[in-house]
């Protein structure tokens, strides 16, 4: 039984299409609100519907421009709190700053923790997110957080469209092996791991050691996000050097920063499959890119949170913890 009788979903400016698609899945209208900047660069939010004692979901992936969209989210949460919402869930399908999750150099921040604190301090009661860079980021929040996985959808896409059977799933980094292992499990394929080395803070990546056998196999690279594309390209080069055949790339979040699209277009990667957790503007849409929607999954999770049913049950019957 639902704790709060009424439910409403609102969107910031980060990805209104996703919010609309989520609402379409749930067969409810997207809530009305205005979110804009005054000429002095200050963000303003006004919720245009009554939300007193209602279950409120605010959809805002932290898309480019990242800092503006964080502020929008925080101000929307504040507006909802001051409008006496019964419960506020921040729906953040892409959590930016997630790579800043530890102090791995002297005198650096842990920005993912800071952003988590900000969301909580603004007044969110829960968070719903998708494929965090590292699962441990869940612990940066002291409020309930549901993390959905994009792997079942990505695996399903590969199963439905590809005919290759001699495949290997490849993690781009030892730290990412669990995500790739989950994909490998779903595709009943072996796993290989490429060791990644980041060179300073220059966003340059080198891949070196390969663990596993990729020779004469079709390789499926799995990653949480495509940033500059450097990781995927470096991984693909290593795989080629070890005799892999066709190379596919499956990733949850299409950040596509800098000239990632051009880099991927010019590479010999056969196909890039990503989700719509982030908007992909037409100019960033490469000829090899396919986008699968996570709106139904997010809509289903929102419905389950609203009614107090299990979100974990959505993922039963596949994958490994
Ligand atoms: C980093 O550890 C992540 O898992 C991704 O591999 C990374 O964010 C991709 O970034 P880029 O495309 O810039 O190499």
Strand-pairing-aware structural class: alpha/beta
Envelope shape? globular
Number of folding domains?
A: 2
Instruction: Give the name of the CATH architecture of the largest domain.
Output: 3-Layer(aba) Sandwich
End-to-end Cα distance, whole Å, is 29 Å
**What's the CATH class of the largest domain, please?**
Alpha Beta
What does this entry look like structurally?
- By secondary structure, this protein is of the alpha/beta class.
- It has two domains: 170 residues, Rossmann fold; 142 residues, Rossmann fold (3-Layer(aba) Sandwich).
- 29% of the residues lie in helices and 26% in strands.
- The chain has eight helices and 14 strands.
- The strands form three sheets. The chain has a seven-stranded mixed beta sheet with strand order 10-9-8-11-12-13-14, with helices on both faces. The chain has a five-stranded parallel beta sheet with strand order 1-4-5-6-7, with helices on both faces.
- Strand 2 and strand 3 form a beta hairpin.
- The protein is globular, with a radius of gyration of 20 Å.
- Ribose-5-phosphate (R5P) binds next to strand 11 and helix 6.
- Ribose-5-phosphate binds next to strand 11 and helix 6.
